[in-house]
Amino acid sequence: FRTGDTLQIKKMEIYPIHVDHSIPGAYGFIICTSAGIIVYSGDFRMHGHLQLMTSDLIRKVREVCKTKGKIERDFSYSEGRVIALICEGTHIHRGSIESERIVKRHLRKLFKYTPFDYALVQYERLDWDRFRSYVDIAKKFNWKYIISEKDAYFYNRLNKKAIYETMRDPNIEKTENILVLSHDKGYFHWKKEIKQLFQNSEIFHRYIKVQDLKNLKEHFFLYITSLSYYNLIKKYLPPDMKGVFISSNVDPYAEEYRMHKRTISNDLLKIGVPSYRIHASAHAKPHDIIRFVDEINPENLIPIHTEHAEFFQKLFLDLKMKVVLPVPFIPIEITS
User: Domains in the chain, ordered, with CATH?
Assistant: First the structure.
């Protein structure tokens, strides 16, 4: 499905609408039921490159409410309110003023007069905005940007299946400063496919082996996806060059991710590599959630994807809207 589609499931009409998030393909849903309209926000934010997508969901909700907000006794539709908003609240309890633009501003400041020769960077592979920000900075300052074969395969697939222009940039095949790092001889279909792409496009000079890292004399970013990948490449880092580690992980959802960052950071301190944190969240901040809820104006508000559901009750005191806290395995009954 795509934005603009209408899905029919058991006499319910469902409208999928894209929303701004760090991961491509994030959607909210407007569900027209016999009880009324239910809106599911999905994971969203309003401070990314594609923040207008979230506005598209709000706009579509208003449009649907005018035509299908309420079912009359003769089964005709009339204007009405959203009966329930199922809303994510990852950061409902705390906020900061940040955006992907601010991430790029900090990166530009760091690398304009940098004493460093290379940078190890860490973020979620699915975070396309962060990938684009780093590649843009690498191009601006004429640095190489090194990714693994698996990363190259994944990003190339997104390029080919792009539903928005922003998913075609960076283009793995056409971006000259992107290098692909090969670190083993294992045979996989996806590995063969990405290697053939570079060979057929006559860009195989951008394929390098992990052993080549020690001999690189030009500035480079090296994207590391995990602790295990870091352990694999760390012995090949050039010993006579100054390095820096930049953590840009988006909202780690498990202590394991925080531990990996600390482990890498502490290990790099032993060889004189300092650490930075440059980050923008993938989730809406309190002020944006309040604005989103006010714009949707539901009769019932159901918080999800949060450890602070009770805070919704303190934050939204409007008597015209009821905050319903979910209980595991207990259905929530919605009536018009």
Answer: 7-95+284-323 (3.60.15.10), 100-277 (3.40.50.10710)
